[in-house]
Write a structure and sequence with these properties.
alpha/beta, TIM Barrel, 4-stranded parallel sheet, 3-stranded parallel sheet
Length: 210
């Protein structure tokens, strides 16, 4: 896919499921459940042991309709390793405009102020991560989008499943959801419970967009 198509696919999913655990051993099984429930954008965080190998495995395992990216990208080495493993997009908790500009795939940097959001947009970020979003709330995004409607935003961090619709209605293009969605499924927890949470999340996106 082209860069524009990758970001369009992330937005179409509405949810980026963030896979983070002490070890990435359980990510393959978790990904199957998420995709089965209708979530088609996954982020493998590089802080999980074995993340690069897991990312490469997911790219082989999952259909091309599923977009897979690398998360917690902080350096050029992180970016290269993730892209070499098959990452179609990169996500960071911080804003480093040099990484945004140099990335061979869409790079979604972390921001927490209107100024950072604007700087990320100017640097070429097609989607700007608002992080940590939970403490700011949908009202913050709605207020920021008044003067900055040209910036596409993906709130991440502290977003509960029951808040997804509110964020999308406030103008978010997609949301990044980690532990409220994944829970302990990547570490031996219930896959049945994961499937229920994932279906609830997908329904929230459908509701907000209906």
């Amino acid at each position: 896919m082209s860069d524009d198509e990758v970001t369009a696919a992330v937005i179409r999913s509405g949810i980026v499921a963030i896979l983070r655990a002490p070890t990435a051993d359980g990510f393959a099984a978790v990904a199957d459940v998420l995709v089965g429930a209708g979530i088609t954008a996954l982020e493998v965080t590089l802080t999980s042991r074995g993340a690069i190998e897991a990312l490469a495995g997911l790219r082989r395992q999952l259909p091309t309709s599923v977009t897979v990216g690398g998360g917690t990208v902080l350096t050029e080495d992180d970016a290269k390793a993730a892209v070499d493993a098959g990452a179609e997009f990169l996500v960071s908790p911080v804003l480093d405009t040099s990484l945004v500009a140099a990335s061979p795939v869409p790079f979604y940097p972390g921001t927490s102020t209107p100024t950072e959001m604007y700087e990320a947009h100017k640097a070429g970020a097609p989607l700007v991560k608002l992080f940590p979003a939970g403490g700011l709330g949908p009202r913050f995004l709605r207020d920021v989008r008044g003067p900055l409607p040209q910036i596409d935003v993906m709130p991440t961090g502290g977003i509960k499943i029951e808040d997804i619709a509110d964020w999308l209605l406030a103008g978010a293009k997609a949301v990044g959801v980690g532990s409220p969605l994944i829970g302990d499924a990547a570490s031996g927890g219930s896959m049945k419970a994961l499937a229920a949470r994932a279906r609830h999340a997908v329904s929230a996106v459908a509701f907000a967009r209906s």
